[in-house]
Amino acid sequence: MRHGDAPYINGERQISETGHQQIKQMTRWFAEYLLKHETKLDTLLVSPVLRAQQTADTFEETLSSLVDYRWQRQTESLLSSESDPDMTIPYVEEATEGTTMLISHMPLVSHLWAGWLRGESQYFPTAAIGSLVFNKMNQSARKVSFHTPE
Fold first, then answer.
1. Which of 42, 52, 78, 96 has a beta carbon 3.0–4.6 Å from 88's, enabling a disulfide?
2. Can you give the pTM of this predicted structure?
3. Which SUPFAM superfamilies does its entry note (predicted)?
4. What's the chain's Rg over C-alpha atoms?
């Protein structure tokens, strides 16, 4: 997931009211997705940058109102926008089990998508969620869905 709309506020990019609405909309979609696929969120990996942390706060608040379980939240510097996907991908693959949501930035989210899907290019608008299934046995991934706010 890319962070929600985040203009500069007081010299730093922060989530706007539009951004919070985007995040809530996408979180409701994600909760329905989990229910439909009979799964639950296990791990939420979040960039340490303020706009990603604010996105995660709104995401968690909204998801908590829709499901009756908890997940683990981790802040990870390898999810910053300037991070090297060649370092981030192996970390995510080794450090997570089950259903994992990443909250990060452009261009990293697009680079991660292309890395897991062998070069498939995808631009992520703010608050967009790309879903894929990763098979650790054969180190491959397949696209499940890509969803953007309306």
1. 78
2. 0.95
3. Phosphoglycerate mutase-like (SSF53254)
4. 14
